[in-house]
Amino acid sequence: MWKTLIFVCVLVAFASSQSVVFKDCGSKTGAITAVSVTPCPSEPCVLKKGSNVSMEVTFTTKAEMTKLQTDVYAILLGKKLPFPNFPYPDGCKDSGLTCPLKSGGNFTYKSQLHVDTYYPEVKVVVEWQLTDQNGDILFCFEVPAQITK
Known about the structure:
Layout: H1 2-16, E1 23-24, E2 30-38, E3 45-48, E4 52-61, E5 69-76, E6 79-82, E7 106-114, E8 123-131, E9 137-148
Parallel strand pairs: 3-9
Antiparallel strand pairs: 1-9, 2-4, 4-7, 5-6, 5-8, 8-9
Family: Belongs to the NPC2 family.
Protein name: NPC intracellular cholesterol transporter 2
Subcellular location: Secreted
């Protein structure tokens, strides 16, 4: 009975995970293991105006990180536009990370993106990146999305 209960718990945890297919867009001082976006039951991820989207990245480091900068962009018609008013630019705060990060470590970065009501209803590619103290890209990924009402 315990084996069955444990199996069901693992199955439920796996089913609720919303890992997405992502494109690495230039990770240099780190390597992405997995990207999860919630809610995102299918692709493109539907970003509803007025809602919050949670994002989790599991990654490894290739060097020690003492400072991290977060940048989030919308790529629309070939143009890379920063998401305005992103409230968590310091990747070492409010992200599940505590700097410094050791070289060769496994880490999970967590953040949220608020989809403002004034955003246009369009298909975009969301680009999310963390840069280190030297300006090198720790990780960078792209996920297709659709902003809707």
